[in-house]
Amino acid sequence: MTTSSLPSAVLFDMDGTLLDSEKLWDIAVAEFTRTLGYEVTPEQRESTLGNATGDALRKLFDIADVPEADRDYAGAERWVSNRVVELFDGGIPWQPGAREALDLLGAAEVPLVLVTNTIREVTEHALGTLGRDRFVATVCGDEIPAPKPAPDPYLRGAELAGFASSDCVAVEDSPTGARSALAAGCRVLTVGPEPVADGAVHLGTLAGASRETFRL
């Protein structure tokens, strides 16, 4: 453990947790679903939040009743990823309190790890906003055996930080991500309008977070 009962490391999700980037993904997803001939509803879009790209695309193909033989997952991933990169490069807003929370933990010398289901190619563009030097490691959805909600991403994040996952705190915004972190044995904090998982502590926002917020 580090001093003041802080966790050994804090593992942060990216989209919707640190960055207010889901609205940019919303644009890309809506544009993609129009190529399939339908308009995605807010409820359908919500069902894909926090999902790995392949899982999200499968749900969208299912909703559009695209026959399995006609599903070009690789092409769809390239289309969506390229569009998101274009949108990210136009600037990504921070979530309230997120930058300050990273600074607070960095000043306390708590190692930080970025753990996201987003693929590496897109994550690299987001790191331009986040600041890659803030993190001792980054884990992306296309770099581990099974993405969230499997525990693999958070187990890998804790491993790269050099600590047991049970000594780490994870911060998430989606049910998919929270289930992943809980399954890995992390203490889980969540942000967003509503609680997303039993067993997680719901903060609502990182605005005003203190060292006490992250205490194990």
From TrEMBL:
Keywords: Hydrolase. This is HAD family hydrolase. GO terms for molecular function: sugar-phosphatase activity. SUPFAM superfamilies: HAD-like. CDD domains: HAD_BPGM-like (cd07505). InterPro entries: HAD-like_sf, HAD-like_SPP, HAD-SF_hydro_IA, HAD_2, HAD_sf, PGP-like_dom2. PANTHER family: FRUCTOSE-1-PHOSPHATE PHOSPHATASE (PTHR43481), GLYCEROL-1-PHOSPHATE PHOSPHOHYDROLASE 1-RELATED (PTHR43481:SF4). It holds the Pfam family HAD_2.
